[in-house]
Each structure stands twice: as structure tokens, then as C-alpha cells.
């Protein structure tokens, strides 16, 4: 498995300390969504967080961004089929800003309330992100495999 840069681990742990989302989740999403930091969707966007847009018609019309964003090609699962499409992904000033926004999104976003109810279990949380955070029906299983295979659980801080 590739190694995770120390600044990425520190940013995920700082996000956990603030937002109570396990660092192992943030790091697994970082690894999966950015190919271990090699590919970002949007400036410093390591987790595929989409931008707010107007006039979008998912999955074929990307719309107009309402915040700093980058238009990227991506794959989404629509009606059981993998579809290549363009989407706007939010830009961030730094990796730290991304991890803070990611933690806030998972910790406060309405779509993730059911997942949060499963904390502190990162595996159950990962499963609950399937179909909510990402359209891939294997998303939670993939996150768990990355967490296990790279021992990302070691980066979790004790939850208060």
C-alpha cells in the first residue's frame, strides 16, 4: 500500500478532533477518491466534494458553479450503470481546509445523520455512506478494505 504523507494524516486527525468523524474514514476516502493523493477533483479536493451549482441536471448537465470550483470528468452509478459525466468539484485553499470541510460535511450534513448514529464504529459509518456520499454500491466495502489493508484505524483519536 502507498504511504500517506504526514501532513495528510495530521489534517485528518485535526478534523477528527474538531468534528468527531474518525480519521480512518477521512483517510480512506482520501485514498479512494484521490488515488492516494495522485488525483484531485478540484483544487486540494481529495474527496470528491461537489460544488454548489445552478442549472445542473445530474448526470449530464454540469450547471454553473456558485463557488470556486473545477469541472472534472468522473464516474457515477446511475440506475445500476456506470456513467461518465462532468461535475463541478469544490476548490479548497489547502489540504487542511479540505479535511476541515469534509469533517464538517459528515458531522453536520443531514444526509449523513444515519451514519453519524453509528459512530464511533468506523466500519458501520463507512457502510452507511454507501448510496449517500457516493453512488458506488460498493463504496462502504471499499472504504473498509482500505482501512483494514492500510491499518488506518491506528490514526483514530479517542472520541470524547
- What's the β-strand tally? 4
CATH structural class:
Mainly Alpha
At the fold tier of CATH, the topology name is Lysozyme
Calculate the terminal CA-CA distance, rounded to whole Å: 30 Å
- Tally of helical segments: 6
Any idea what the CATH architecture is? Orthogonal Bundle
Strand content: 15-25%
Q: Any idea what the radius of gyration is?
A: 15 Å
Number of domains: 1
Mean pLDDT value = 92
Largest sheet: 2 strands, antiparallel
Largest sheet, order of strands side by side?
Answer: 1-2
Summing up helix and strand content along with how strands pair, one would put the structural category as: alpha+beta
Report low-confidence residues grouped into runs of 5 or more: none
In sequence order, what are the helices and strands, one letter per element? HHEEEEHHHH
Overall geometry comes to globular
- Helical fraction: 25-40%
What does this structure look like?
- The protein is of the alpha+beta class and 160 residues long.
- It has a single domain, classed as Lysozyme (Orthogonal Bundle).
- The protein has six helices and four strands, in the order ααββββαααα.
- The protein has helices spanning 6-19, 23-34, 95-108, 113-116, 122-129, 139-149; strands at residues 53-54, 64-65, 69-78, 81-90.
- It has a two-stranded antiparallel ribbon with strand order 1-2. The protein has a two-stranded antiparallel sheet with strand order 3-4.
- A hairpin with a 2-residue loop joins strand 3 and strand 4 (81-90).
- The longest helix has 14 residues, at 6-19.
- The chain is globular and about 45 Å long.
- It starts with 5 loop residues before the first helix and ends in an 11-residue tail after the last helix.
- The mean pLDDT is 92.
